[in-house]
């Protein structure tokens, strides 16, 4: 989804968004029910745990306090175009602040963060409807806003899900 601003080769070189420490566990992607079924079928050794309607990957933290997504290989993500929506749109995120849904950009992705703001902003405008629609269909994908994350689009939120 982000190929226009982020090449597969840049992602394969970096992979920072597929490795997590204890402070950014909230970034571990949500796996949609249909994708969870696919993973259980194709990768029966991969551990998934239900998180609301979705699931998350479960893997151990290593001695450096890092946990690596089990779908990550030297060549990139095993799931290819089937990867979770959270991963499809990363480093963009939908975040909630009060009654607003904000389309934000994670500063962790150095490649996208280095692009001219206008380019990011034009691209964000292009994907905003699709991303907000996904957030509306699956409110669990909405994260709490983190101060300092740049905001590229704003919508009014529906009622907060229980
Ligand atoms: S599912 Fe793929 S893209 Fe998403 S965190 Fe895991 S390896 Fe990375």
Contiguous low-pLDDT stretches (5 residues minimum) are none
Residue share in helix: 25-40%
Estimated share of beta-strand residues: 15-25%
Number of helical segments? Answer: 5
* Spatial arrangement of strands, main beta sheet: 9-7-8-10
Count of discrete domains: 1
**Which molecules are bound in this entry?**
iron/sulfur cluster
Largest sheet: 4 strands, mixed
Helix/sheet category: alpha+beta
Compute the average pLDDT: 92
Radius of gyration of CA atoms, rounded to a whole number: 16 Å
Find the count of extended strands (DSSP E, 2+ residues): 10
H/E topology pattern: HEHEEEEEHEEHHEE
3D shape: globular
Beginning-to-end CA distance, first to last residue: 30 Å
Can you give a write-up of this model?
The chain is globular. The model has no long low-confidence stretch (mean pLDDT 92). The protein has five helices and ten strands, in the order αβαβββββαββααββ. A hairpin with a 2-residue loop joins strand 7 (92-97) and strand 8 (100-105). Strands 9-7-8-10 form a four-stranded mixed β-sheet. Strands 1-4 form a two-stranded antiparallel sheet. The chain has one domain (8-156). The two termini are 30 Å apart. With 162 residues, it is α+β, with helices and mostly antiparallel strands.
Describe what is shown at a glance:
By secondary structure, this protein is of the alpha+beta class.
Helix/strand layout:
Elements: H1 8-14, E1 19-20, H2 33-42, E2 48-51, E3 54-57, E4 67-68, E5 72-73, E6 76-77, H3 85-89, E7 92-97, E8 100-105, H4 110-113, H5 117-137, E9 143-144, E10 151-156
Parallel strand pairs: 7-9
Antiparallel strand pairs: 1-4, 2-3, 5-6, 7-8, 8-10
Iron/sulfur cluster binds at residues 18, 29, 69, 71-72, 77, 79, 83-84, 87.
